[in-house]
Design a protein that fits this description.
2 copies of one chain form a homodimer. By secondary structure, the first copy, chain A, is α/β, with parallel strands linked by helices. Chain A contains 12 helices and 8 strands. In chain A, the strands form 2 sheets. Chain A has a 5-stranded parallel sheet, sandwiched between helices. In chain A, strands 6-7-8 form a 3-stranded mixed sheet, with helices on one face. In chain A, strand 7, helix 6 and strand 8 form a beta-alpha-beta unit. At the A-B interface, helix 7, helix 8, helix 9, helix 10 and helix 11 of A face helix 7, helix 8, helix 9, helix 10 and helix 11 of B.
Chain lengths: ~300, ~300
């Protein structure tokens, strides 16, 4: 492993999982962690999310040749400013944020002259905080690197090797393309889920108790996603605005077409869509990006 | 148990699960099954989904005091017509369909004078067909009965006892209210899921391979629901049109408000919604309507 010491700034689900994954997969690599919340630092020390839990970001970054910012994308620039002047020369700065153009720009502003390769491991759960992380979070998940123009190929390779060691598969693309892809595979699904859960909570003619009781009809799936961290997701939407609005526009067009099909009783249009969508699920399961068991293997089936 | 013999018409996920659940929970009750597809009958016999697999609906209904139609709601009237003249006097007719006003009307048209109590067990998986059923599908799930005006309270009680014996919890409401409640807890979630999966499949600037690879960002959850049976769901939307369009209108209004918040950079509006939605998930888990494990317990967490 090229990196001798990794500093993890932010010790929630992602930061904590990186620390635990390094301990499991790269026992020779040193780790230091920092979180701006003292309670999180306390819990991180108890769970040993990093070998050393520090009282400042600068302290954690001392001697580190890889510094990973694991904070909501809206807090990236502030976190990077705290590192300004404290990084080792040549230390690689990366992150795990869900929007990459905004992060790339923020890091370049805050840390001029420092090598920067933004990254996004496409992995997570609906839980957050220092208790949520686990060592296998990245197993068989994709991690996208978005090196800026002129990034050192050796550092791209080193960061790729790092994520591969944690169990991930690595892909390289531009920040712009990343933001478009993730808008559709992650951001719009979250926005839709948050919205329908909100809609269902606010009805007068259907009680909240009824929504909960009959949620097994499909609704409950959306509530899992809609239980994700509010700050993280607010920041994603504010920081990937253009791609999200673009994809939302396309979704809304398609939804309007379905609405029209229902209103006019066009069963063929409904049937055609409902048939086409099965193929994608099959591919996702074949590529081991989801569980093949019915109903995600919930409950006591079988 | 009040019922001595149950006829199951339609041997897919729901019909098959009823047969297997009776065998497990009500071993004294006889079962006969029929499906219009000969291949399904063959497989149903192999899996012993009912004690007797018959060559016609009328044959299955002979001597039955409870007949449950487990076909797509658009096929209910046709299936009921096949039973016309073949039912025992006083045999109770029920179903498992996801829309109740249309089913109630169709059954009343096809079987005048026969006692009818429509029902809807709110349970299922994304799989369908004679291999999809299992005996515990109804455990800890709600089954809604929608007895028409003038239904015999003793028959309502008997049907309620039947579903309770299969492991379900029973609620009684009007067909009209059922259709509104299920529009929001089941039909709109399915419509949204089908639509976003369709949107993602048709993009030019993001490949289908990318959608699949990065689906763990949230999208994959929607593909499970969007793998549900196309005929069943086409029929639901055609048969619960008014309630679906009503709820879709409310969802679209809320989505437009979120779109405006993103466009104008109104982080507070986003944060408020994203915080409110967590409470409903907690209640769903407390009421054991979903798995508490992170990410539905997928993969090798922990």
């Amino acid at each position: 492993m090229t990196f001798g010491k990794v500093a993890i700034i932010g010790l929630g689900l992602l930061g904590g999982s990186i620390g635990l994954a390094i301990r499991q997969h790269l026992p020779g690599v040193k780790t230091a962690g920092y979180d701006s919340d003292p309670q999180v630092r306390l819990r991180a020390a108890e769970r040993k999310l990093a070998q050393e839990i520090c009282e400042s970001a600068a302290e954690a970054a001392r001697g580190a040749d890889l510094v990973i910012l694991c904070v909501p994308v809206g807090a990236i620039e502030h976190a990077a400013n705290e590192l300004s002047g404290a990084l080792e020369p040549g230390a690689l700065v990366s992150d795990v944020g869900s929007s990459k153009q905004s992060v790339s720009a923020a890091l370049a502003r805050a840390l001029p002259g420092q090598p920067i390769i933004p990254a996004h491991p496409v992995a997570g759960t609906e839980h957050s905080g220092p208790d949520a992380g686990f060592a296998t979070l990245f197993h068989n998940r994709w991690c996208i690197l978005t090196p800026p123009d002129g990034a050192d190929p050796e550092q791209v390779a080193a960061l790729s090797e790092f994520w591969t060691a944690l169990g991930a598969m690595v892909e390289v693309m531009t920040a712009e393309h990343h933001d478009l892809v993730l808008a559709v595979t992650s951001h719009i699904p979250h926005l839709i889920a948050y919205t329908i859960v909100g809609t269902a909570s606010d009805l007068e003619d259907v009680t909240r108790g009824e929504v909960i009781k009959y949620s097994a009809g499909g609704f409950r799936d959306f509530t899992r996603i809609a239980a994700s961290d509010p700050v993280m997701w607010r920041d994603v939407f504010l920081n990937n605005r253009e791609a999200v609005l673009e994809m939302l526009g396309r979704f809304t067009e398609d939804l309007t077409a379905m609405q029209r099909a229902i209103r006019s009783g066009n069963g063929d249009a409904l049937f055609d869509l409902f048939t086409r969508t099965r193929a994608i699920r099959r591919s996702i399961i074949e590529q081991k990006q989801d569980d093949a068991r019915p109903d995600f293997g919930r409950g006591d089936h079988g």
